[in-house]
Write a structure and sequence with these properties.
Blueprint (H helix, E strand, L loop, with lengths): L1 H24 L8 H27 L4 H9 L3 E4 L3 H6 L1 E2 L4 E3 L5 H14 L3 E4 L7 H11 L5 E3 L3 H7 L4 E2 L6 H9 L2 E8 L7 E8 L7
Parallel strand pairs: 1-3, 1-4, 4-5
Antiparallel strand pairs: 2-6, 7-8
């Protein structure tokens, strides 16, 4: 009886050793990598909150077609995020239309900073509701502290289908004319940087000349 029990224990020990060797040879971790699990967990949380935030923008900042029409007729800034080639072929004929193409990030960020300095209300649109770039541009401008923003989710396809007026050619020069009248002064401030763990980061802000201190 004892001999049989010892043989069983010996067999179990050999099987366990073989299983351990197989796991190590195959590259599978015998013990979970806690650091990797935490990193993946943080990434899942970031993606979850990013989706939640974008959905909030869609629900709270979206304009209907009629609201969109009233917005640009009241001299709100309309930002067309499509590529420049498409913009120059045809775009919305609005008094303050701008092309801030998502495929030219450096130039786009500079334009967003300039607009933020003037404190103008803006609305973003892209090709269609499926493209998502308008919401992403909204988030970019949100990071520089701009608050008066909307999105037109239907985008270019919806405004074309609705028969809104369109035009061709390059961007109208309204911004340069507006800037010549205002002449904003750049100031360096700091605000919490949400991308890098909340540490303060320098942010350039502007204000019109008529609001500057003498």
């Amino acid at each position: 009886m004892i001999a049989a029990a010892l043989r069983i224990l010996a067999i179990m020990a050999v099987a366990l050793t073989a299983a351990t060797v197989q796991v190590r040879v195959s590259g599978l971790p015998w013990v979970p990598d806690v650091a990797t699990l935490r990193k993946e967990d943080r990434q899942r949380h970031r993606e979850f909150y990013a989706r939640q935030h974008r959905e909030q923008i869609r629900q709270e900042a979206a304009l209907t077609l009629e609201e969109f029409r009233e917005f640009y007729e009241a001299l709100g800034v309309v930002i067309d995020t499509r590529p420049t080639v498409e913009f120059e072929q045809e775009h919305l004929d609005a008094p303050r239309i701008m092309n801030v193409p998502a495929d030219d990030l450096e130039s786009s960020v500079e334009l967003l900073f300039e607009l933020h300095g003037y404190g103008l209300p803006v609305v973003f649109y892209c090709e269609s509701e499926e493209c998502g770039i308008a919401v992403e541009m909204y988030e970019e401008m949100e990071l520089v502290g701009h608050a008066d923003m909307r999105v037109f989710l239907g985008g270019w396809r919806a405004l074309k289908a609705a028969g809104l007026p369109t035009a061709g050619g390059p961007q109208p020069p309204w911004l340069a004319e507006f800037a010549a009248q205002r002449q904003p002064a750049k100031q360096m401030t700091t605000q919490p940087n949400r991308i890098h763990g909340g540490a303060d980061a320098p942010v350039i802000t502007t204000k019109p000349a008529d609001e500057q201190e003498s």
